[in-house]
Design a protein that fits this description.
- The complex is a heterotrimer of chains A (467), B (374) and C (533).
- Chain A is of the alpha/beta class.
- Chain A has helices at 17-26, 58-69, 93-99, 102-105, 116-133, 145-160, 173-183, 203-209, 232-241, 296-299, 346-383, 412-421, 451-466, and strands spanning 79-80, 137-138, 164-168, 188-192, 214-221, 245-250, 268-272, 288-292, 307-311, 318-322, 400-404, 424-425, 428-429, 440-444.
- In chain A, the strands form four sheets. A seven-stranded mixed β-sheet of chain A has the order 2-8-7-6-5-3-4, with helices on both faces. A three-stranded antiparallel β-sheet of chain A has the order 11-14-13, with helices on one face.
- Chain A is globular, with a radius of gyration of 26 Å.
- Chain A starts with 16 loop residues before the first helix and ends with a helix.
- Chain B is an alpha/beta fold and 374 residues long.
- In chain B, the strands form four sheets. In chain B, strands 10-9-8-11-13-15-16 form a seven-stranded mixed β-sheet, sandwiched between helices. Chain B has a five-stranded parallel β-sheet with strand order 3-2-1-4-5, sandwiched between helices.
- In chain B, α3 runs parallel beside α7.
- In chain B, 56% of the residues are buried.
- The radius of gyration of chain C is 26 Å and the shape is globular.
- In chain C, α7 links the parallel β2 (184-188) and β3 (205-209).
- Chain C has helices at residues 42-48, 70-82, 105-111, 114-117, 129-146, 158-175, 194-201, 219-225, 248-257, 357-394, 418-424, 428-435, 465-484, 486-490, 516-522, and strands spanning 150-152, 184-188, 205-209, 230-236, 261-265, 285-289, 306-310, 322-328, 331-337, 413-416, 454-457.
- In chain C, α6 (158-175) packs across α7 (194-201) and α10 (357-394) crosses α13 (465-484).
- Chain C has 15 helices and eleven strands.
- Classes of the chains: A alpha/beta (467), B alpha/beta (374), C alpha/beta (533).
- Chains in contact: A-B, A-C, B-C.
- Chains B and C meet through α3, α7, α13, β15 and β16 of B and α7, β3, α8, α11 and α12 of C.
C-alpha cells in the first residue's frame, strides 16, 4: 500500500519516529502496518484516501480557510433584516470570551467534581432562564428550538396519555417538518387556522379542534411571523379545560418586557437561546430550552439532564448532581425510553447564562424595549412607502413583522435582489412558503439597528419601488 | 442520627468448615465437630469498614445508632466498633435459632431503622424475609455456607462500604433480591432442589457514575416495562401461567390481580383463575387449551426451569408448547449471567432439549434480547 | 535551589483549582450592570409616540436576574472555567468512547471570524459561497472516508445522527409499503445505548444481540433475530470493547438478504479513518461525530455534529436542504437542493438550518491539516497508543479485559477490575473519583454493566508516550492504594473541586432544586432578589 503516514506531525506526538518505533518494539510489531490485524484484508482500503494535499503549515491552513471565508458577505458588513428564527443581536464580548475558554470548549463528560465549573455554570444558566420565564425547572439545553418544541410535545403526550397535538397553521415550515419527523409515527399534529386580518390563532377553529384527544396546544408568542397572541391567556385556559397541556414557544429576548407564558397559564415554555449572546453562526448558534413548574409529573417527563444543587459531605460547600436521574420510576412506562439524551448544545447554554448575568433585569427590559421601538419605527417608515403595507397583519408585533409588497406590483425576489445591490439583506421572502399572503417578506429588526439603518432601508426600498 | 439494625446469626457458616452442607438444624452437631463461630468476625469486619468509611467523610461513628439483639447475635460485636449501641429487649439465648432471628428482625423493623444488616447465609435470609418481607431495606453480610441468594454483598468489607454509601445517600435506588434456599436435607442426599422464598429490599447498585449518557432505566422500572410489554400481547380466551419471581410479578400487579410471589398464578382474560397452582391443576388448566407460560430465570444461575418452578412440569410444558413460553429478564439480570446461557432442568432430558438454541427474552417495553439456551 | 526531582510520574501534589465561587445570584449588587444596551434613539421614540404592548402581554415585574458589573461577571465565569477539567489542561485518556483528542487552536480561531459567525442562514447563495464550499467539500471528504454517497450535517450529535438513520429507514419502508411489517431494529449490547433509544423514538421494537465468547456479536443469535420483521441493523464496529467484528459483512449481508437496511454507528471511527469503510462492510447509512474523530471539540456537550451519510438509493430520504455543486459560467457554484420541501420521501428536517457551521468548518480545517497521509497516521497512532496502554495495563494483576486475549484492539478497550473489587471492596466507581485527585478522567461504562467493574479508556492519537506512562503509573498508584488504604479511595475525591456530594435531595421532589429560586424556596430563604427571610 502506498500510504506512509507522516513523521512529527504537531498534533500527533507519537508520530515522532523514535518514540513510535519504541512503542512498536514494545508491542512486538515491526511497522504501523502490523496494526489493525483484526480487520480482514478484504475490508481494508487498498489505496490512499483521495483527499487534497495536506496544508504544509498552520500559516498555509490559515490562508487557505481565510481565503474561502473571504468569499462570504456577512451581516456586520451588509445591513441585514433577516430573521425567521435566527437573528442578529449584539453579542457582548464577555460571552465570546467565556465560550472561547479552552476548559469549557474541550470539556465533555466529567463528573460533578472535576467538571464542577461546567455543572455550576449550567445550573446557573438554568436558574437565570428560570427567572426569565418565571418557572422553577429548566433543562440543560437541547439541540435547538425545534427540538425543544418537539420534546415538549412528546412530554405532554406522555403526561396526558393522548396523541393528538394542535399546532398553528402559521409556523416555520422547517420547524413543522422537524416536529413531525420527531413525533411520527405515533403522534398526530393538527393545524389550527388563523385570523387572516390579525394573523393570530383563530379561537373558534381552536375550540372546534380541541377535544378529549388533545394532548397539547402548542403555539408561539410571538408567532413565526412576529405577531403577538394577545389572547394567549384564553388559549391556555381552553387547553386546560380540555385536559390538555399548553406549550408556548417564546423568543427569550422578549421576556424583559413581554409577560412570560407561565404568567398567562402556560404549562411548558420552550424556545431557542440563540438571541441570548450567541452569534448566528450561519444557523449554528441555535440551542433549545424547556421550562416547567416544579412538579414531579413534569420533572419526571424531561428527557434532558437537569442539574440540581446539593450539599456535600463538607459543610459550607455546594455540590451539583443530576436531579431525578432515574425518571422511569414514574408511570407512563409504555412511553418511556422513547427519548434519548446525547451531545446537544451545552456551551450555548453557558453562554446564555453569561448573557443574562451581564444584562440583569434592567438590561433585559431595555433590550426588549429597544427592539419593540426600533421594529415599531421600521414598520412606520416602511408603511409610508407607497404600495407597501407594514405590518402585514393588524396585530401588535415584536422584533419581526410581515411587510406586504403586493401593492407595489413587484416581487419580493426582485426587490431583495435590488436591495442586495444596495448592500442590504432584505427580509426573507415568504412567497414560497405562504403564497396566500401575496408578495410578502419577513423583516427582523433588533437592538443592533440604528435609526440611520432603518432610514437607509426605507430610502432604498422607496427608490427600488419607485423605479 | 442514622439508625441501623444488625442481626448476626452466630452459628452461620459453622457447617462449612466441618463438611456439612449448611448449618440449618445442625448447629449442635457442627459445634460438636469443633466448628468455630465465623459470622461474628465477619460482621465485625463489615462494621469496621463502615465506621472507617463514615469517619472518612466526616461522620463520627457516634452519629450512628445501632440496634442489636443481645449477646452473640449483635451486642458483643457492635460494642467493639465504636457505634452507639441500643440492645433490643429480647431474651439472651445460649443457643440461637431462626425464631430468634425472626423476632429480632421484627423488633428492629418496628423501631424504624434506615438499614438492617444481617450476617448469615441463605437460611438467615429466609428468616429475615419471613419477618420483614419487602418493607425494610436490608443487606446481607456473607457469613453462611450457602450464599445463593443475591441479597448478600460480595465480601464483608464490601457490605461495610455499601452500607456507608447508603448512609451517605449515594445509593439512590432500591431493588428487590430473590431469597433462595436449597432443601438441605435433599442436598445432603445429593439432590439440588432450590426453592424461592420471597424477596428482600436492597440498596441498588452504587451511585450511577456514567454521566455521559442520559438516565437509564432502573431495574425495578425495567421489570415493570417487561410486564407491560407482556400484557399488551395478551390474547383473549387464553390461559396464562405466570411463573414465580420479581420479574414476572409486575404482570399480576399491573393487571391488579392477587398473586403468589412464590408460586405459579393462572390468568385468563385478565382475571385470576388460580393462585399458587400445583402441577396437577396446571395440567388440567392447560389441557386442550390455548395456553402461554411466562417465566424468568430465578436467582443467579440462569435456570429457566427446575429452580423454584417445579410446578411447571414437563407435562405442562408439553401441553403448552415450547413456542408459547416467553422469558422475561432485565438487562441487569442477563448481565449478571456473564454470557452463560440459560439452563433448563425440568427433570426430563427430552423436554430440556426442546429449549436449546436461542430464545427472545423480553427485556423492556418493546425491547428483546436474543439469548442462548443450553 | 535544587532542581525538582521529576522522576516520579504520579502527580501527588496535584490540586484542582477551587475558587469557592458563590452562585451567580449571590453576587447581586443592586445598581450594578454588566453591559449597556443600544437603545432606540430619541427620534424613534418621538416618531412612535405611544408604543406599548397590550396590557395582557406586558411583563409587570422585571425578571429577578442578578445585577453584577462586568469585571465580576467575567471573573465568576473565568473561575468556573478553571474548575472544569477540559482536554486542554488534561491528559485525556479516561473518557473512553468519547474520542477526546487535541482540538487545534487555529481551527477555533478560524471559526470565530465574522465571515462565519455573522452569517445569517437565509442570506442569498451568492453571499455564502465560501461556507457552502466548505460544507460541500467536507461532505465529499466524509464520502471518501465512508464510501457512501451523500451526507447531511443537520444532526446535532451522535444520538440525533442515529435518529436520522432510524427516520430514513422508516421513510424508506413507508415508501415501499413495508413500514407496518418491518418494525424491528437489531443492535448489540456493546453498541452505544442510543443505537437502541433513538430508533425507539421512531416506534421501533429493539432487538439486542449479545456477544459470543470472543466478544463478537453472536452470529447465531443474529441469525435467530433477523427476518421479515427486520427494518434495520444499527451497530458500532469496533464496539465499546475495542473488539473489531471481522465478520461484519456476513451480518450486513444477512440483513440485506431479508430486505433490511444497515446503519453504521461510526462514533468510534477514529482508529479506522482511511483503513476500512462503511460501504465495503455493507452499510447503507452511517454517521461520524465531527466533535469526536474530527476534533471540533466537545464544548461541554455540544454544539456538535453527527454528520449522517447515505447511499445514493437512500439519498432522497435524507433531511434537507443538501448542498450541491454546479457550474456557473465555468466556475464552481455551490447551491442548496431544496427538494426536501416537496419530495414526500424526505424525512424533512431533524434540526434547524444546515447544522452547526463552525463545527463543519473546524472539521474541514482539521482534515486539511492532515491530508491522506496524516489521517493514516492518526488512525495508526491512535491504535498504537491504545494497544500500548492495553499491554501495560494487562500486566497489572488486578486488571483484565474479557475477549480475544493477546489480540489487538482498535481504538479503545473496556477493562474490568473485578478482582480488585473482590479483593478490596473498592469499586470501579470509587477509582473514578480517586483518579480525579491526580487530575485524570476515568470512565466506567454505560449501564447496566455487562462487564463487571468496568473501565473504558481511549487514548486517541493525542497523548505522547510520556502522557500514556503517566496515566498508567497513576492507575497503578491508585490500585495500590485500594489494597493498602482503601478508605482514601472510598472517601475521594480529596483534591478535586468539591467533596463527595450528598445526593439524597436529587430524588426527593421536596428537596431537589434545578434552579436557584427553587433552592431558596425549598430551604425557606425567600426569592432571588429579596433579602433572606
Amino acid at each position: 500500500m502506498a500510504v506512509n503516514g507522516v513523521n512529527n506531525h504537531p498534533y500527533i506526538p507519537n508520530s515522532a519516529p523514535g518514540v513510535r518505533a519504541e512503542i512498536l518494539r514494545e508491542l512486538g510489531l515491526s511497522s504501523l502496518e502490523d496494526l489493525h490485524e483484526e480487520i480482514p484484508g478484504f475490508l481494508k482500503l487498498d489505496r490512499k484516501l483521495d483527499l487534497p494535499e495536506a496544508m504544509a503549515s498552520e500559516l498555509e491552513l490559515k490562508r487557505h480557510v481565510t481565503g474561502l471565508l473571504s468569499r462570504n458577505r456577512h451581516c456586520e458588513d451588509v445591513l441585514s433584516f433577516l430573521g425567521g428564527g435566527c437573528a442578529q443581536h449584539y453579542v457582548p464580548a464577555v460571552c465570546d470570551e467565556i465560550n472561547s475558554r479552552g476548559e469549557f470548549l474541550t470539556a465533555y463528560g466529567g463528573e460533578m467534581y472535576n467538571d464542577f465549573g461546567r455543572f455550576q455554570a449550567l445550573f446557573e444558566y438554568q436558574s437565570l432562564v428560570g427567572e426569565l420565564v418565571d418557572m422553577e425547572v429548566v433543562n440543560v439545553p437541547t439541540m435547538d428550538g425545534f427540538q425543544a418544541a418537539a420534546t415538549s410535545i412528546r412530554m405532554a403526550c406522555r403526561m396526558t396519555g393522548r396523541q393528538e397535538v394542535l399546532v398553528p397553521d402559521i409556523m416555520d415550515p422547517d420547524k413543522f417538518m422537524a416536529i413531525r419527523n420527531y413525533c411520527s409515527p405515533d403522534i398526530r399534529l393538527l393545524r389550527v387556522g388563523h385570523d387572516p386580518e390579525t394573523g393570530r390563532i383563530d379561537l373558534n377553529d381552536l375550540a372546534t379542534k380541541l377535544s378529549g384527544n388533545t394532548a397539547a396546544v402548542y403555539f408561539e408568542n410571538p408567532s413565526f411571523l412576529g405577531v403577538l397572541q394577545t389572547r394567549a391567556q384564553e388559549i391556555c385556559a381552553m387547553a386546560r379545560k380540555a385536559g390538555a397541556e399548553s406549550i408556548v414557544a417564546v423568543d427569550p429576548i422578549s421576556l424583559g418586557i413581554l409577560a412570560p407564558p407561565a404568567q398567562y397559564g402556560a404549562d411548558i415554555t420552550c424556545g431557542d437561546l440563540q438571541p441570548l449572546g450567541i452569534h448566528m453562526n450561519y444557523g449554528g448558534g441555535q440551542s433549545g430550552f424547556m421550562a416547567t413548574r416544579d412538579e414531579e409529573r413534569y420533572v419526571m417527563e424531561f428527557p434532558s439532564r437537569l442539574f440540581g444543587i446539593v450539599p456535600t459531605c463538607k459543610p459550607g460547600e455546594y455540590g451539583f448532581d443530576d436531579v431525578a436521574y432515574d425518571r422511569t420510576s414514574f408511570g407512563h412506562h409504555r412511553e418511556h425510553g422513547k427519548e434519548y439524551v446525547g451531545t446537544q448544545s451545552a456551551l450555548w447554554g453557558i453562554t446564555a447564562g453569561v448573557y443574562l448575568a451581564s444584562m440583569g433585569p434592567r438590561g433585559m427590559e431595555e433590550v426588549g424595549r429597544s427592539i419593540l421601538d426600533k421594529s415599531g419605527y421600521a414598520r412606520q417608515v416602511l408603511n409610508a412607502i407607497p404600495g407597501v403595507r407594514a405590518p402585514g397583519f393588524a396585530s401588535p408585533a415584536f422584533k419581526e413583522f410581515v411587510v406586504d409588497f403586493t401593492g407595489t406590483g413587484k416581487s419580493v425576489a426582485r426587490i431583495n435582489q435590488a436591495l442586495l445591490d444596495a448592500e442590504i439583506f432584505g427580509g426573507s421572502d415568504l412567497f414560497g412558503d405562504f403564497p396566500e399572503l401575496g408578495q410578502t417578506a419577513l423583516y427582523c429588526v433588533t437592538e443592533i439597528h440604528t435609526k440611520a439603518d432603518i432610514d437607509r432601508l426605507a430610502d432604498a426600498l422607496g427608490r427600488i419601488i419607485a423605479s | 442520627m442514622t439508625r441501623i439494625g444488625l442481626i448476626i446469626n452466630p452459628i452461620a457458616g459453622m457447617g462449612g468448615r466441618v463438611g456439612l452442607k449448611g448449618t440449618d438444624g445442625l448447629a449442635e452437631k457442627a459445634r460438636a465437630l469443633g466448628a468455630p463461630a465465623l459470622s461474628p468476625q465477619k460482621a465485625a469486619r463489615a462494621l469496621t469498614v463502615l465506621a472507617r468509611s463514615l469517619a472518612g467523610t466526616g461522620r463520627a461513628p457516634g452519629e450512628v445508632r445501632l440496634f442489636v439483639p443481645p449477646g452473640d447475635m449483635g451486642e458483643t460485636v457492635a460494642a467493639s466498633c465504636g457505634f452507639r449501641v441500643q440492645v433490643l429487649d429480647l431474651p439472651r439465648a445460649a443457643v440461637t435459632n431462626g425464631g430468634d432471628t425472626r423476632r429480632a428482625a421484627g423488633q428492629i423493623r418496628s423501631r424504624g431503622v434506615d438499614l438492617l444488616l444481617f450476617a448469615g447465609g441463605d437460611g438467615t435470609a429466609r428468616d429475615i424475609c419471613a419477618a420483614v418481607g419487602e418493607d425494610q431495606t436490608v443487606m446481607g453480610i456473607p457469613a453462611g455456607v450457602k450464599i445463593h441468594s443475591p441479597v448478600f454483598a460480595q465480601t464483608p468489607e464490601a457490605a461495610g462500604h455499601l452500607a456507608a454509601d447508603f448512609i451517605r445517600g449515594n445509593v439512590r435506588q432500591l431493588c428487590l433480591g430473590d431469597v433462595l434456599d436449597i432443601d438441605e436435607a435433599a442436598y445432603r442426599r445429593g439432590r439440588v432442589r432450590t426453592r424461592f422464598y420471597g424477596c428482600l429490599s436492597l440498596p441498588g447498585s452504587g451511585r450511577v457514575q456514567a454521566r455521559k449518557a442520559g438516565s437509564e432505566v432502573s431495574e425495578t422500572a425495567a421489570q415493570d416495562l417487561i410486564a407491560l410489554d407482556y400484557i399488551d400481547a395478551m390474547e383473549k380466551d387464553t390461559v396464562y401461567l405466570i411463573g414465580p419471581g420479581t420479574t414476572t410479578r409486575p404482570v399480576m400487579t399491573r393487571l391488579g390481580l392477587d398473586y403468589s410471589l412464590l408460586g405459579v398464578d393462572v390468568v385468563e382474560n385478565r382475571r385470576l383463575v388460580l393462585c399458587d397452582a400445583p402441577e396437577k391443576e396446571l395440567l388440567a388448566l392447560t389441557r386442550n387449551r390455548s395456553a402461554r407460560i411466562f417465566i424468568t430465570p430465578i436467582g443467579g444461575q440462569g435456570y429457566l426451569f427446575g429452580r423454584g418452578n417445579h410446578q411447571i412440569s414437563p407435562g405442562v410444558i408439553q401441553q403448552t408448547g415450547v413456542e408459547n413460553i416467553r422469558v422475561g429478564a432485565t438487562m441487569e439480570k442477563i448481565g449478571r449471567l456473564k454470557g452463560q446461557p440459560f439452563l433448563v432442568d425440568t427433570g426430563d432430558p427430552v423436554t430440556d432439549r426442546m429449549f436449546s438454541g436461542y430464545t427472545r427474552v423480553i427485556t423492556g417495553y418493546r425491547r428483546e434480547m436474543v439469548y442462548p439456551v443450553l | 535551589m535544587d532542581l525538582i526531582d521529576r522522576s516520579a510520574t504520579v502527580r501527588e501534589n496535584f490540586h484542582q483549582a477551587k475558587w469557592d465561587e458563590p452562585i451567580i445570584f449571590e453576587l447581586d449588587t443592586p445598581g450594578e450592570r454588566g453591559i449597556r444596551v443600544p437603545e432606540a434613539e430619541p427620534e424613534i421614540r418621538a416618531a412612535l409616540g405611544q408604543n406599548d404592548l397590550p396590557d395582557a402581554l406586558r411583563r409587570k415585574t422585571p425578571p429577578a436576574l442578578p445585577e453584577i458589573a462586568q469585571p465580576r461577571v467575567l471573573r465568576h465565569y473565568m473561575r468556573l472555567s478553571q474548575e472544569t477539567l477540559g482536554a486542554d489542561v488534561n491528559i485525556e485518556i479516561g473518557q473512553g468512547t468519547c474520542t477526546v483528542k487535541y482540538s487545534p487552536k487555529i481551527n477555533e480561531l478560524l471559526a470565530r471570524q465574522p465571515q462565519i459567525t455573522a452569517l445569517h442562514p437565509l442570506q442569498p447563495e451568492e453571499t455564502v459561497q465560501g461556507i457552502l464550499e466548505i460544507f460541500y467539500k467536507t461532505d465529499c471528504f466524509l464520502r471518501e472516508f465512508s464510501g457512501l454517497d451523500r451526507f447531511t450535517f443537520q444532526p446535532g450529535g451522535g444520538s440525533q445522527g442515529i435518529l436520522t438513520m432510524a427516520s430514513v429507514v422508516r421513510a424508506y419502508f413507508e415508501e415501499k409499503g413495508e413500514a407496518e411489517q418491518r418494525d424491528e431494529i437489531i443492535t448489540t449490547i456493546y453498541s452505544h445505548p442510543s443505537d437502541a433509544a433513538a430508533p425507539a423514538v421512531k416506534g421501533y421494537k429493539i432487538i439486542h444481540i449479545g456477544p459470543d465468547k470472543d466478544g463478537y456479536p453472536d452470529i447465531e443469535a443474529f441469525k435467530a433475530a433477523v427476518g421479515p420483521k427486520t427494518a434495520g441493523f444499527f451497530v458500532a464496529n469496533p464496539e465499546d470493547t475495542g473488539v473489531y467484528n471481522p465478520r461484519i459483512r456476513e451480518f450486513t449481508g444477512l440483513v440485506h438478504a431479508h430486505g433490511g437496511l444497515c446503519g453504521y454507528d461510526q462514533a468510534n471511527a477514529n482508529g479506522l479513518l482511511g483503513i476500512t469503510r462503511a460501504r465495503e462492510a455493507g452499510f447503507d447509512l452511517c454517521f461520524f461525530n465531527l466533535h469526536k474523530s474530527f476534533s471540533t471539540p466537545h464544548g461541554c456537550g455540544g454544539p456538535a455534529c453527527g454528520a449522517t451519510g447515505a447511499t445514493t438509493a437512500l439519498e432522497p430520504f435524507l433531511p434537507g436542504p443538501l448542498i450541491n455543486k454546479a457550474d456557473r459560467a465555468g466556475k464552481a457554484w455551490y447551491c442548496f437542493d431544496r427538494s426536501y420541501r416537496q419530495d414526500k420521501r424526505s424525512i424533512g428536517k431533524v434540526r434547524s438550518w444546515y447544522g452547526v457551521a463552525p463545527v463543519v468548518l473546524k472539521a474541514y480545517a482539521w482534515i486539511m491539516s492532515l491530508g491522506a497521509e496524516g489521517l493514516y497516521e492518526v488512525a495508526k497512532v491512535a491504535v498504537l497508543n491504545n494497544n500500548y496502554l492495553f499491554k501495560k495495563l494487562m500486566e497489572i494483576p488486578c486488571v483484565d479485559a474479557p475477549y480475544i486475549p493477546g489480540r489487538q484492539r482498535v481504538e479503545q478497550v473496556r477493562y474490568t477490575i473485578e478482582k480488585l473489587a473482590a479483593d478490596t471492596g473498592v469499586t470501579s466507581g470509587d477509582i473514578q473519583r480517586r483518579m480525579m485527585d491526580f487530575g485524570m478522567h476515568y470512565w466506567t461504562s454505560h449501564h447496566p454493566y455487562h462487564i463487571p467493574e468496568p473501565i473504558t479508556l481511549e487514548p486517541t492519537e493525542t497523548p505522547s508516550k510520556k502522557d500514556l506512562d503517566e496515566y498508567i503509573e497513576t492507575l497503578k498508584h491508585v490500585f495500590r492504594e485500594a489494597y493498602e488504604t482503601p478508605e482514601v479511595i472510598k472517601t475521594a475525591p480529596h483534591r478535586s473541586v468539591c467533596h463527595q456530594v450528598d445526593a439524597s435531595p436529587s430524588d426527593d421532589p421536596e428537596r431537589w432544586a434545578v434552579t436557584w429560586r427553587a433552592y431558596l424556596r425549598k430551604t425557606g430563604r425567600g426569592k432571588p432578589g429579596q433579602s433572606p427571610a
